[in-house]
Amino acid sequence: ILQSHYQQIRITFDYTHFDSLDPQYKNHSSLLRSRILPDVQNFWEQALRVARLPTALKINPEFCPYYTSTTHIEPGIANTDLVIFLHANNEDVCGQNEILAAAESCQKDQYDRPTVGITYICMDEMDINNDKGIDEIKHLLIHEVAHILGLRAADMAFYRYRNGAPRTPRPLNLTEVTCVDGTKANITRPAENTLQMGFTNRGNRYYELVTPTVQTVVQNQFNCSKIKGARLENQSENNCFGSHWEARLFTSETVSAIATPTPQYLSPLTLAALEDSGWYIANYTQASISPFGHGAGCPFVEKDCIVDGKVPPWGKDYFCNSILGEGAPMKCDPMHRYKSRCDLVD
């Protein structure tokens, strides 16, 4: 597909399930409809261009049983490239491990690009009483839409080169893989040109996305030309490889695994990963530089954050060694935006 044929992606949110929410969530629903989700939609529509669907998007009920009208199946949803169904307070998602939201895709086009997804929102975890809380919800949902767009371990084997050829040879086959937690799984493994396994200097296994644009962005982020790719989270993931950026390196990135009270940034890294999927062309003016570790050099990436109980030179602006407690001193947070205390636990 010629790049000149790519146009701004069109995203449709389906709010139907909000109509059956308990009255206590009326303000949550109203705020999501009128302010938060329109901002999320506008962000991604400005951030990505796509080869648009030429006809109405028809939901396949076998793959996506989330549709809210039979018209979604036939004749389909016109003038859209991605439909996202919104569910609130799903019992299987909410109330477990302080989960705020979750998302997945369920249908693809002929080039394997996700075209239908679902986002689960846990209303009881939402703070809608101040602008800071509302902004955190917006970034959380920008994060979840990134997963639907293709930033998931389950989608990486389907990534393509810009000319449309699969990065992982077809047909896709199941193979035995050692997961980040050391267990074995028979799954589809993305090719080495997309995903590679590595070990930290402490022997902890991880996987990293090694596609070309991602590699360039990560090397620029840390000012380290030795880096092969972007490391994926290897803790508390419910999949073999990881679907979030490693918090040790990318804690201020919107698509890191851990929500923090400090600002998070949708950085060029996330846009690079989506662009390297072969499905999108990114508009990098929509990205913000993630301050955590920016320009810190190779030791920041390769070495320990605390050495012999002390913060080493490469970690001075980002790590701390004071034990959490009332007597812990107030210092500048790693993003240099707030006063904070060290959260190191003895």
Q: How widely separated are the two ends?
A: 55 Å
- Named at the architecture level, the CATH assignment of the largest domain is Roll
Q: Output the radius of gyration.
A: 21 Å
CATH topology of the largest domain: Elastase, domain 1
CATH level 1 name of the largest domain:
Alpha Beta
Which shape, going by the Cα principal axes?
globular
Strand order of the largest sheet: 2-4-6-5
The amount of helix comes to: 10-25%
Count of discrete alpha- or pi-helical segments spanning 4 or more residues: 6
Domain module tally: 3
Stretches with pLDDT under 50, minimum 5 residues: none
The biggest sheet amounts to: 4 strands, mixed
Query: Per DSSP, what share of the residues sits in E-state strands of 2 or more residues?
Result: 15-25%
Counting DSSP E segments of at least 2 residues, the number of strands comes to 14
Mean pLDDT: 94
Family: Belongs to the peptidase M8 family.
Binding site for Zn(2+): 143, 147, 244
Active site: 144
InterPro entries: Peptidase_M8
